[in-house]
Amino acid sequence: MSVNSSRFDSAIGWSARPDAWVGRSVRFLFSALAVILFCGPLLVIFSGAFDHNPDPTKLSVIPDNPSLINFQVAAENKIWHYLMNSLIIAGGALLLQLSVSVFAAYALARKKFRGQAIALLVILATMMLPEEVIAIPLSLVIGDLPLVHVSLKGTLLGVILPLGAWGFSIFVMTEFMKEIPNELEEAAKVDGAGELRLFAQIILPLCKPALGVIAVFGFNMIWEQYLLPLIVAADPSDYTLTVALLALRSDDMVGTGIVLAGALLALVPSLVVYLSLQKSFLRGITTGAIKG
């Protein structure tokens, strides 16, 4: 089967015209600029983390003196302990956040009740409040949990619970569930499916793309938390990796390479989560774009 070369060239952005090299050159320059802007800082972090004595005033992509000494010193500063705290908080909070989001979205999208629009409006309003505004009330609540009068200060649970619900995740899931045809739900009810079976076997499997989206965004939101872990912490050993990195940076006895080693460790979980959920994430984003 023959292939029309001119049509193929046009599809990938090339052109057979004499002045086509101008367009190719411009696209190449913009692509190179984008790669430098996005990948440059990552390469600098990688280089500095494995450099025995990195110079903070020098832009280096390749380590001048490759060594693992920065990770060894970072381990002596309990960097692995802080990383474990962050992983436990991120895993627990993300699982709770996904559960709350799907159940709340199911009620808002598939059920009808009084005050439904007001409930969604209140959920969206929580996204408009800066962390600094709710810092003091949140600290008081964590210090004396209402009804049970238990203090969550100095516990990982004190960080996990406030992150268990996020307005963005609930909104995304709600809008996605609204697009599921009602005919599927009606057909399942005719076949004798109950409410729980309908939710678990019909609605939830169709929401996998949206779950990928809120999982990636939710993990990054939880992983980047700084103020909440700082409020909950009763001792430096309660710090997460994000808080610990700033503490290490302010310590004059700690070199730049150690901080970069910790920053490299902080990048790995986010990359792993994104690469693991890449297909669902991209499918959810493109599905939302097509529906929009």
TrEMBL record:
Membrane topology listed for this record: Multi-pass membrane protein
CDD domains: TM_PBP2
Stretches assigned to the ABC transmembrane type-1 domain: 83-277
InterPro entries listed in its UniProt record: MetI-like, MetI-like_sf
Highest taxon above the source species: Bacteria
TM regions (residue ranges): 28-50, 87-108, 120-142, 154-177, 198-223, 253-277
Family annotation (Pfam families): BPD_transp_1
Keywords: Cell membrane, Membrane, Transmembrane, Transmembrane helix, Transport
Compartment list: Cell membrane
Family indicated by similarity: Belongs to the binding-protein-dependent transport system permease family.
PANTHER family listed in its UniProt record: ABC TRANSPORTER PERMEASE PROTEIN MG189-RELATED-RELATED, LACTOSE TRANSPORT SYSTEM PERMEASE PROTEIN LACG
Identification of the protein by name: Carbohydrate ABC transporter permease
Native source species: Lentzea kristufekii
